[in-house]
Write a structure and sequence with these properties.
Oligomer: single chain
Order of helices and strands: HHHHHEEEEEEHHHH
Radius of gyration: 30 Å
Helix content: 40-55%
Strand order of the largest sheet: 1-2-3-4-5-6
Shape: elongated
Number of strands: 6
Length: 368
């Protein structure tokens, strides 16, 4: 019992350390991606931390299998390198008992992954969909403007320039706005026209009837005409509203990611639903199989480098995960039947684990 607690503590501590480092690295990567979305006006700054927090359980469900796999390799590899594993075998704690203990740890972590994939992640995806569809996710044009810089709208038909922004970034001063339009000349040919607006102040507003976004300018002039022609209009106004083009680049999850397990099962005959259903269980199965595989893969000669087995082990992990992605793509596109689905990848992995254990049993003295 003492030995089991000792081995469990070594694996769990290494698992937590590896997973934490990987989680911080991946969250940093997602933060950079969302900062880019903020810069181009896809999401408002106020939702940045919320959306990053939504990524944590999703990333964690992918990192736990890898973290456990590397944790076992590093923990057991150190025991082999320091001759501790040989001592454990001498006192009767052989590889079979170590494999049994590791399988229990792997099953526990696989249960956590299954909960994340089947219940937590769909719930978080649903919440994120609601947040992105709410008014709070509406990106105000003024908030994306940089003072004293010309900026082009997402549709490429509007150019804006503001000299100053208020502290809360809700009002702009000394505004220049150019909008490109198409019109017909006297001969029926299409020509380009430009509308220029010069105003002292401006702010963004939403129309209650059409739900459209408008940029309202105050105290200014509007110029309309074609470049190079003398036929143009000059209009002075106290208030003039310009419709802002909708941002079509909102970040939305795949529909299947928000569905519950029962909804996927009820529509299991659909390849896309079946692929999502099998994918959620596949990561949990992957966690358990990788944990069992890590036991023979961690066996190294005493006093040799404890990281010797990492390179082949990581290569095996990469091949395994890529096969799962390929199998998911095949199921989604109907290249393989739903019955075969993604299960054949786990079958190959299970066969490989048995071969590695069988080869290792010829070198190890297995004790109960």
């Amino acid at each position: 019992m003492i030995i089991a607690r000792y081995l469990t503590r070594e694996v769990v501590y290494t698992l937590l350390a590896v997973t934490t480092i990987l989680l911080l690295a991946f969250l940093s990567q997602q933060t950079v991606r969302y900062l880019n979305y903020v810069a181009i006006g896809k999401i408002p700054t106020s939702l940045l931390l919320t959306l990053i927090s939504f990524e944590a359980p999703y990333i964690l469900s992918f990192l736990l299998p890898l973290g456990l796999y590397l944790g076992i390799l590093l923990a057991y590899g150190r025991l082999y390198a320091d001759n501790e594993m040989a001592i454990l075998q001498m006192v009767g704690y052989g590889n079979r008992r170590i494999t049994r203990l590791t399988a229990i740890i792997g099953l526990s972590v696989a249960t956590v992954v299954l909960i994340l994939m089947c219940w937590v992640n769909p719930y978080v995806s649903g919440i994120r969909q609601l947040v992105m569809a709410s008014d709070e996710a509406t990106v105000h044009l003024v908030q994306t403007l940089m003072p004293q810089r010309f900026q082009v709208s997402p549709d490429g038909k509007h150019v804006m320039y503001v000299e100053k922004l208020s502290h809360n970034r809700e009002r702009a001063e000394n505004i220049f706005l150019a909008e490109q339009k198409k019109s017909m000349d006297a001969n029926g040919k299409e020509k380009d026209e430009w509308m220029l607006v010069l105003a002292n102040q401006g702010y963004q507003a939403k129309d209650t009837l059409s739900q459209g976004q408008f940029f309202v300018t105050e105290e200014g002039y509007r110029y309309e005409g074609s470049p190079g022609e003398n036929d143009y209009k000059i209009i002075r106004f106290k208030k003039y509203a310009v419709r802002i083009p909708e941002n079509e680049g909102r970040i939305m999850d795949e529909e299947n990611e928000t569905l519950s397990l029962s909804q996927l099962w009820n529509d299991y005959s659909t390849p896309q639903k079946a692929a999502e259903f099998q994918w959620r269980f596949s990561l949990a199965i992957t966690t358990f199989l990788l944990a069992v595989l890590a036991v023979p893969m961690s066996a190294i000669r005493p006093r040799s480098g404890r990281y010797v087995s990492l390179i082949p082990a990581v290569l095996i992990y990469v091949v395994y995960i890529h096969l799962l992605y390929i199998a998911r793509h095949w199921v989604e596109n109907g290249f393989v039947s739903i019955a075969i689905g993604m299960w054949w990848v786990h079958g190959i992995m299970l066969f490989f684990i048995l071969c590695v254990m069988l080869a290792g049993s010829q070198k190890w003295s297995i004790k109960r």
